[in-house]
Each structure stands twice: as C-alpha cells, then as structure tokens.
Amino acid sequence: MHISTSITLVLALAAGQTAADVRQLYDAGKYREVVDTLEQAQAPAEADRAARLQYLAAQSYDKLKDAEAARRTYQRLADSGGETPWASIGLSAVQVMDTQFDEALESANRATRLDASLPEAHYQRGIALMFRKEYGD
Prior knowledge:
Helices cover about 65% and strands about 0% of the residues.
C-alpha cells in the first residue's frame, strides 16, 4: 500500500500557499496556523508533500503541547503502509514518544537508508540520537 492511498490528510493550501509557505509559518512559531491550514484541507495532494506537511503538523501539535494530536498524526504516517521513509519517520516519532529510543533510532536509520536525500529523515534520526544522548554520531 502506498502512502498516497493511506494518508487521510488532504490539503488545500489557501491562496497558493506552498509547502515552503507552511514551513515558514512553522519556523516563525505560528504552530496554530500550521495546524489550521492542514485542518481546513479540501483537496488531495501529491503523496510526498502530504507526508511532509503531516510531519510538520505533528511537530506543530507537539509545540502546542497537544501530545495526543501529535501522536495521532505521527501514527498516521507510521501506518501509511509499505516500506517508505515517511512510514519509518512516523514510526520513529511514535517510538520516541514511547521512550523506545533504540527502536526509534532503528526506524530513523531505515528512513535515511530509504531516502538519504530526505531532510526529515535525518532530522528524525537526530531526535532519536538526542534522546539516546548520543551527540557525537
């Protein structure tokens, strides 16, 4: 099963907003706006962009201290099916939340092996390493 068939998140970025626009909202600390943009979605998007924005939404929920919504969103990525980097990233994030840091690192490593050019895979690997208190790797 491909990520595009299993992600239920649909996106309609208002007024021509791109993934980069939404990323700028996140970087500016406007986490509620990121979540609101994604919750107002109406049209399906290309799978990689949908997964990327879903990951960003989960991080936004985390910043908003809504652990339940963050977990649900990360879990959607993890359950997206198949051997995809996004499924591994989502699984790693859930494992970090469950303090399963060794498993989280394994999942993040799998994501980087599946797509070494995906920044979020490396970012998630860094999170797993941080929680394992491994700073030199």
